[in-house]
Amino acid sequence: MNAKTLRRTDQITVAALLLWAGAALGFGLLMAPLLFRELPSRDLAGRVAGLIVGRLDGAAWIAFGLAGLSWGARWVAEVKEDLIGPLRLWSSAWLVALLMCLASTFVVTPKIQAIRARINAPVESLAPDHVDRVAYNKAHGLSRNLFFLRLLLALGLAATVSVLPRKGLEREQTN
């Protein structure tokens, strides 16, 4: 891989991560509070927000998947050099983000949907100590935490792409 291609993959990575982080930040800080303030019921706002989070989960798979472009070519070069280097640390954060995508998409979101389908009423209508309301609140809290941790990881990964190693990969440009 030559230097020009490496720079392009880094730019694609940064753009994908920042685009997703911007969408997530816009939803989390701007749109979600408006939904819960303006819509007639918290249940309706929660359903709309859940649909948006589902779309953002899909977009997270794409963004973090594209981040793999910057990772793939470098991994082999660093294996020979350092036990723990910038690429290994970056890769660990990237894998954690993918695991969070996996947990959100295939564990937490289906759990929330199953609880909502089972109660078939607004969550707020249940007693605070009701088993389904407690389970919903736990799953919702976990979903929110995964969402914001992925946001922080996306920003961190985008900010640190420039420190990933390039030596050993740029020599092909001279050949």
Rg from alpha-carbon coordinates: 20 Å
In DSSP terms, counting alpha (H) and pi (I) runs of 4 or more, how many helices? 4
Shape annotation:
elongated
SSE string, helix = H, strand = E?
HHHH
Beta strands, count: 0
Uncertain stretches of 5 or more adjacent residues: 171-175
Sheet of most strands: none
Structural class: mainly alpha
Please report the distance between the alpha carbons of the first and last residues. 11 Å
Mean pLDDT: 88
Subunit arrangement of the protein: single chain
Helix content: over 70%
Strand content: under 5%
The domain count comes to 1
Question: Any chance you could write out the topology, listing elements then pairs?
Answer:
Blueprint: H1 3-38, H2 42-79, H3 86-119, H4 131-160
Plain-language structure description:
- The protein is an all-alpha fold.
- It has one domain.
- Helices cover 79% and strands 0% of the residues.
- The chain has 4 helices and no strands.
- It is elongated and about 60 Å long.
